[in-house]
Design goal:
Distance between the termini: 106 Å
Keywords: Signal
Number of helices: 9
Structural class: alpha+beta
Order of helices and strands: HEHHEHEEEEEHEHHEEHEEEEEH
Protein name: Nuclear transport factor 2 family protein
């Protein structure tokens, strides 16, 4: 028994030792001449200084995209990479490259397989700007690896970034339709029936046009956004205890938008709510703009309302001279 316990203890010790071993493979620096070179190179690229950029790069330089799905990619040579970087300078207003919040670059000197004494610098940055032609705002994060020679020349760059942030720019160079606008549609009919049921005090019928899990947003108040149908019913009841709803008139005409992207659909409608405040019999006209999102079954799944809440609190006064 003692022998078995001893063997078990030795086995556990060997496993612990195997998993607990550490072996260094160089040094990591928070300050290093290579970091300074990378910083100056980035400043030159933001300034569009191609000659200064070239001075930091070796003649056999290569740049790669770490997220590419192209096997055996050849990367970009020195001239092609500089042209690529100048695209950002020439195409963007307010162009900047800044450290990602709470990050800092590292310089790594590996021992193994590093006979040429090369240094890797890794950075985490935010690229910002507004595309001059399309107005698309870029606010993108990127991770870059720079390999520098012993004399602090950049020999390789591997860039990791989300290339989809540029898709909106590419798509914005041409006009593109995104669905159809209707001025007559069954979903518009639904909105009219819902509004006029509310006008007649038939709240049960008005609520029947919503899905049970519909959400509501009162965009005049941060407190009432994304609330449930049950909560909206409570708010409607409280509102009608303070105001008499005399009539509701349509302003202009509703639009029904059936979007191609995201397969979404919404009715935009404008109304004037004629109210009487019960506390002082003050007549109030409240303009309201609704955006109602529909599902494929013709039920309202989300509603956003825009109006001036102050009109409910005090009468409109004409300024005196």
């Amino acid at each position: 028994m003692k022998t078995k316990i001893t063997l078990l203890a030795l086995a556990l010790l060997s496993i612990t030792t195997a998993f607990g071993q550490k072996k260094t493979n160089g040094n990591v620096y928070i300050e290093h001449p290579a970091i300074n070179v990378v910083d100056e190179f980035v400043k030159a690229s933001v300034a569009g200084d191609s000659l200064k950029m070239a001075s930091y790069i070796t003649e056999d330089f290569k740049a790669y995209w770490g997220t590419t799905n192209v096997p055996d990619t050849k990367g970009l040579d020195k001239a092609a990479f500089i042209r690529n970087q100048l695209l950002y300078f020439n195409a963007l207003d307010y162009y900047s490259v800044t450290p990602f919040p709470d990050s800092y670059p590292d310089a790594i000197e590996y021992k193994k397989d590093n006979k040429d004494q090369e240094v890797w610098v890794q950075t985490w940055v935010e690229l910002n700007g507004v595309h001059k032609r399309t107005g698309v705002k870029i606010d993108a994060s990127a991770h870059r690896l720079y390999k520098l020679t012993e004399d602090n020349k950049i020999n390789t760059i591997i860039n990791y970034a989300n290339g989809t942030v540029l898709d909106e720019i590419r798509a914005s160079f041409v006009d593109r339709k995104n669905g159809t606008i209707y001025n007559h549609h069954d979903n518009i009919n639904t909105i009219r029936k819902m509004i006029y049921a509310m006008e007649k005090g038939d709240m049960e019928k008005a609520y029947s046009f919503y899905e049970e899990d519909a959400t509501f947003g009162d965009l005049s108040s941060f407190k009432n956004r994304g609330i449930s149908l049950a909560d909206q019913k409570v708010q409607d009841k409280a509102f009608l205890e303070k105001f008499d709803l005399v009539t509701i008139e349509m302003s202009g005409y509703p639009d029904y938008l059936e979007y191609e992207m995201d397969d979404s659909r919404a009715v935009l409608s404008w109304w004037n709510f004629h109210l009487v405040r019960k506390s002082d019999k003050m007549a109030i006209v409240l303009p309201v703009f609704f955006i109602d999102d529909f599902n494929k079954d013709g039920k309202i799944i989300r509603e956003s309302a825009y109006y001036n809440e102050r009109l409910l609190e005090q009468p409109f006064k004409v300024a005196s001279n």
